[in-house]
Here is the input.
Amino acid sequence: MDMNEIKEIFFQECEEGLAELETGLLALNDGDDDPETVNAVFRAVHSIKGGAGAFALDDLVSFAHVFETTLDCVRSKQLEATRDVVKVLLKSADVLADLTNAARDGGSVDPARCQALVADLEALANGEIPASDDAVADEPAAEAESAPADEPAPEAQAEGEDDFKPIPVQFDDLEEKGDDFEPVPFSFDDFGTDQAPSANIFRIVFKPKPDLYLKGNETLLLLRELDQLGTLDVACDWSELPAIDELDPEGAYLTWDATLTTSEDEDAVRSVFEFAEWDCELTIAAAGEEAETAEDAAPQPDVEPETDESQPDTEQEDVSASKEEEQAEPVEKLELPNVIDLQQAAGANRQQAAESAAAPKAQATASASGAGSTIRVELGRIDRLINLVGELVINQAMLAQSVTESATSGSSAVTMGLEDLQQLTREIQDSVMAIRAQPVKPIFQRMSRTVREAAEMVGKNVRLVTEGEATEVDKTVIDKLSEPLTHMIRNAVDHGLESPQDREAAGKPAEGIVKLSAKHRSGRIVLEIADDGAGINREKVRQKAIDRGLISAEATLSDEEIDNMIFHPGFSTAEQLSDISGRGVGMDVVKRSIQALGGRVGITSTPGKGSVFTMSLPLTLAVLDGMVVSVGEQTLVVPLTSIIETLKPETEHIHGFGASGQLISIRDSFKPLIDVGQILNFSNMPTDPLAGVALLVDSEDGGQSALLVDAIQGQRQVVIKSLEANYANVPGIAAATILGDGQVALIVDVEAVVSASRSGALKSEMSLAAVG
Amino acid sequence: MSDESQTGTGQLKLAENLDLTAVTPLHKSLLSARGSALVIDASEVERIGGQSVQLLLSASKSWADDGVPFEIGNASDNFLSALALLGVGPDSLHVKEQTQ
Here is the structure.
């Protein structure tokens, strides 16, 4: 592992820290006054500072330092976390994120912006209200003025400056370990917080077993080694020591309780006991730490199961109860609640996790201790695994097909074995997909910054409310979600919400609300962006559409159709192109990028109440449930999600329309009947509707159409193979897949086929004849 | 324990090296000295392990229970520093520091 890799880990940690920082600040903003929230926020900045110091990222260190000083004032209650204060803190978090990005990817952050915030932060730390008016909302926040303590914090700050010395990390010895080196998540948390510079305090409770001495280990030497790490304070407990005539001279009756103040980390302390760990009861706890992670406790070796002893702890008695009979001598002295037996740490963690699930406020602590149960894996490796599983699915389908073709009896052992294999394959596929599934939380968090910045730019008061952050979706989808979501959020702030004055005039609170929510619905993820603004001004939209020649002046459009006009290319209702939405990107681009993900977007709007944009996306871009159909001599796959129903057309349902168009009447309404073979240029002859099958599909504008195909072959899950990546973009076709017989089948882009049926043929420069 | 010499007045001289191998002989010597006042000479001690200290502590406690005087005298620096490192206060063992 070289320096760059270690640095990369640091930046990953930074990202997590920044996310935690933002979560905490937003919680403070919402009135959360849990000291643990403030602590979590402080820790996040502190860790970033510590790590940045190790890598000599001076800009980052100095900004983080000022930020931290102010947070320390909040932590020590010298500064009350009012909305105005949190506003400055949130901005600082943004700058910290920018500085981190700049440190990683190069580039720089506007020094003036940094300077201004540094001044604001310092002012806050000094008990003043920042001078820059944009940091302060309309209300002058009387509470903020009276809140700061009488003794301002300059000393704290000066002290802090002296206090902080970045500790360079020694990487030299890492090299020696070569390939054995496992990346250990950095924790800079312990870098000199309240103690003397970089002092860690560990409480070590150590009770040797007779084996320890038998194996040539010696308590004295262990303690001496500890002593060399720093300042050691040892107390020996001989309360269990029997009288001399009852004593086994080679027994072990003493317990040592040591407090070590050291600049070393816990690993260094633990390594002292490396060879003695199994022959003693050992507890190492950093002062103030609640519990150790399970990973810190080395696994119990199989060879010595009898060494599994436990020490009773008030919190842990239930866990240790089952092991009580093996427990020779309980150590009464452990009264500190923060000491938990290592061997029980796993259980403790579970317990802690369960508790924190019940109390969401404790999440910060829970995630801190739960961090050890995850591993970082390069995305490329997972992608490779997913590809391989895709191949496995295809291969299994091919095998199944050839067995079916050659086997005469359906119940042969081979067929049954194959069924098991099929089930197993499906399970493997689901599990692998679950690996890549991630909660939408990070992207939602990024949106809160988008809202802040957009609101500031247009001078509105906006609050982002998020819901369903834990909803999981494939990483590839998440990565592509950011752009359309950012645009829609900006759009909601810029166009959706009214100005504070207008809102007040309309009897609404001056602060507008943008609500971002995510949920799973029938195998898709549905994202909603709702604002409580004025809703779509349909008159204006309609007029604009007429002005631009998109519709004729006489056209009668439903409300829904007018609302959907905003997705039309080049449509913008903002009277003046503003900075944030006038970037040449219209809602049409948003719609297209969502469609490219196999998604749909729609809008509902209530005048005076606001608008809701709804995006529905597949959970994964790797597999798809599809209807396999025949068109001409081709086999196509139609995504199941777009099919509403299938039907066999009858004579009385088919009606001619115009020169060559056809309509099908379904339950008293007419839907266009689209001959897929013709649209895709598979055949010159129109398909006979009576001989084919119609698939009723949803289209984006809320309308429905019927796709006419020759026959339905079946329904199955297919592995999506990109045509763009493997061949070229083909209009009307979304992707391809490989079927059980090894044939390539094309996956129909339903939306493109439907719109092609309206506007004429698909762009002919790449006709399907060229592909097929 | 070869180096230790027991006198009629209950005296015991600790060996130079009180590691694992020295514990059992020391235990025996202490057991046989039980019941009368004991002065232990720790002047020669170069090395002492946890189990020997444990043994001496048990002896000190047993002697105290018996109401019989127990004292460790002439403690060498190494003996004292080992006790300090092990968190055993000299008083617990009735240690008198080396006079020389």
